[in-house]
Design brief:
Number of domains: 2
CATH superfamily of the largest domain: Type I PLP-dependent aspartate aminotransferase-like (Major domain)
CATH topology of the largest domain: Aspartate Aminotransferase, domain 2
Distance between the termini: 46 Å
Structural class: alpha/beta
Strand order of the largest sheet: 1-7-6-5-4-2-3
Length: 423
């Protein structure tokens, strides 16, 4: 236990004492025939901690944050027990918890007939939903009969999914300056399509701007032209906890498939996600496959989805939400978005920088008003090792990208970013 206490102390001190993104280029310890002493192992732990990016309140560049302590402890227990949710007998309480969590989110989404599974990450959740849209295991139709309609602002996992599933016919739809998909262009593209299976992709919380698509309009188009609608709510799905911002998820309850990602805005370690289909019949028809090497009268979660063995990640999420409560997540979401709006106002009044868009969630793009070498400026920001935002591209132009996600990030930290970038 002393070793674990030492690691905890190292983690706490590392946030306070070192650069946000430290240098990591010294030679690694070589694996030898003989094992290491406890002191040597502690040295390795200390090095990993000291040379790793720490998602502290100063790290404002990506959709990542520190998991809650309850989640870390739960995840350690999950790892130690090493239960496998492939079969009930390998994961009795984990199976019950996963089924409870699936039902919990179906109720939160108002998908009363929905059914789903946990997946090893958001990308796998998206791939699972789109695999179901393409027919799944039971409908091996020619992929040339499928067309996917996706926004240019959609997550890269959507295009990866199309390639993996074998969908060559992918139509990229223009995104507005806000990051939302152009609904008029989408409807025209769907109208002009004569393929058998049409799949529309909507996003709640785009990776670049945190925008949410007009899902209700997508649903109307889908109903008129007979399309499958998949909603990638990996990031923005947490807004279902907020009375103020739950409108971001309007229309999602009518989608054919939805992906959620609790490793982002729910404070659990990566990687874990959820894929939900609007009814269990679709799950059984498209994503079910018998697993003959375990027969019994209990539900085996390995029956559904594209994965076999999986960690019991539902336990970590369940314990975290039980410990924190829904109100905590709601306050986190509301406060983060409020801070982002404040940052937008700050940028609008700044003499050196300007906002690229008006934020809808907690992501803000901005750029310098004068022409500068943004790549060099960003490298200097990284070298300074203090507050940090990422450098991204939007419409082929470089932009700074702030993600106000860590609960303890303050407006002062955002102001410091601007000061550091203009030096």
């Amino acid at each position: 236990m002393a070793q674990f206490e030492n690691i905890k102390n190292l983690l706490e001190q590392s946030v306070k004492l070192r650069k946000t993104i430290p240098t990591s280029n010294t030679p690694l310890h070589k694996i030898n025939k003989e094992g290491l002493s406890e002191t040597q192992i502690n040295d390795l732990f200390e090095r990993i901690i000291s040379e790793s990016t720490q998602h502290s309140l100063r790290m404002m560049g990506h959709m990542d944050t520190q998991p809650f302590d309850e989640a870390v402890v739960a995840d350690a227990i999950v790892s130690k027990l090493n239960n496998n949710v492939l079969f009930y007998e390998l994961s009795p309480i984990a199976t019950r918890i996963e089924m409870y969590m699936i039902d919990y989110f179906c109720q939160k989404l108002s998908m009363s007939d929905g059914f789903g599974i946990f997946c090893s990450g958001g990308s796998i959740a998206n791939i699972t939903g789109l695999f179901a849209a393409a027919g799944g295991f039971q409908n091996q139709q020619t992929r040339s009969d499928i067309e996917m309609f996706v926004s240019e602002a959609a997550h890269i996992s959507i295009k990866k999914a199309a390639t993996l599933i074998g969908i060559d016919n992918v139509t990229v739809i223009h995104a507005l300056a806000s990051g939302k998909i152009d609904i008029e262009q989408l409807e025209q593209a769907v109208k002009n399509s004569d393929v058998k299976t049409k799949i529309i992709i909507g996003t709640v919380g785009t990776t670049i701007q945190g925008a949410y698509d007009d899902i209700p309009s997508m649903i109307k188009i889908a109903e008129h032209y007979g399309c499958w609608v998949h909603v990638d709510a990996i990031y923005g799905g947490a807004t279902i906890f907020s009375e103020t911002h739950k409108h971001c998820m309007d229309g999602v309850q009518y989608a054919d498939s939805v992906s959620l990602g609790h490793q982002k805005w729910m404070g659990v370690p990566r990687v874990s996600g959820i894929c939900i289909l609007k009814d269990k019949k679709q799950m059984d028809q498209r994503l079910a496959m018998d697993v003959p090497y375990s027969v019994g009268d209990q539900m085996n979660l390995g029956t559904w989805g594209i994965q076999g063995s999986r960690r019991a990640d539902a336990i970590t999420l369940w314990i975290t939400l039980c410990a924190k409560g829904e109100k905590f997540i709601e306050n986190w979401v509301d406060t983060a978005i409020e801070k982002t709006h404040t940052f937008y106002k700050m940028l609008s009044e700044d003499e050196n920088f300007e906002p690229v868009h008006q934020p809808e969630m907690n992501l803000q793009l901005f750029r310098p008003k004068k022409q500068v070498d943004m790549l060099t400026a960003h490298k200097q920001l990284t070298d300074k090792g203090q507050e940090w935002v990422s450098l991204s591209t939007w419409k082929q132009e470089p932009v700074y990208r702030a993600v106000i996600l860590h609960p303890d990030t303050q407006i002062e930290n955002l102001s410091n970013v601007l000061d550091l970038l203009k030096q």
